[in-house]
Amino acid sequence: MTNLQQNIGRKILVNKSQNEKFEKLKKLKAARNIGIVYAVNEIDNNLKNKIIHYFEAEGKKVYTLGFVNDKNIDNYLPNFKEHYFCCADINFWKIPKLNSVAPFIHGGHDFLINLDIHGMNELQGISVLSSAQTRIGKYFEEFVFAHELMVKSNSNDSYGLFLDLVKYIK
Predict the structure, then answer these.
(1) Tell me: the pLDDT tens digits for 50-74?
(2) Into which CATH architecture does domain 2-14+33-169 fall?
(3) Which pTM value belongs to this model?
C-alpha cells in the first residue's frame, strides 16, 4: 500500500509543480534568506547546526523545516527559525498539508535546500510547494520537477549531500 500511496502522491505533486523558471541561478553571495528542509532522523543535531552556522557565517538568514516521522512533535520545540512537521501534517498520499507548512513555504527564501537523501514525498513536497526563488536538492529521476538545481550525489547522509550541494552554489 505504501508504494501505491507514494506513486499517487508523486503524480499529485507533478500537477502542483510550478511552471519552469527562466531566471539565472543566483550565487550564494547574492542570496539573503536560506530555507533548509530535512528529515529529523537523518541528520545529527550537531551537523544540522554546522550547516546553519555555515550559512550564517556568510551573512544569511537561515530557516529550517524538519520532518519528524512520528504522530506528533512533542519532543521538538519550534522557534522563530526552526519549524517542524510530522505525520499528522501530511495527507494520505504523504504530501504535506498546506496549512501546516505555509509559513515556511511562503517564507520568501532565495534558496530552498532540500537535504532529502531518499526521495520522500514528505520532503520533496515541500520543494514543489515552496515559493523559493531557487530550489536545490539531490537528483531523483521521479522528482525532476521539484527543483531548479539537482545534484547527483553518492552521499548516504544529509551532511554529505549538503557538502555536494554547496560546491554548485558557491
Answers:
(1) 999 999 999 999 999 999 999 999 9
(2) 3-Layer(aba) Sandwich (3.40)
(3) 0.91
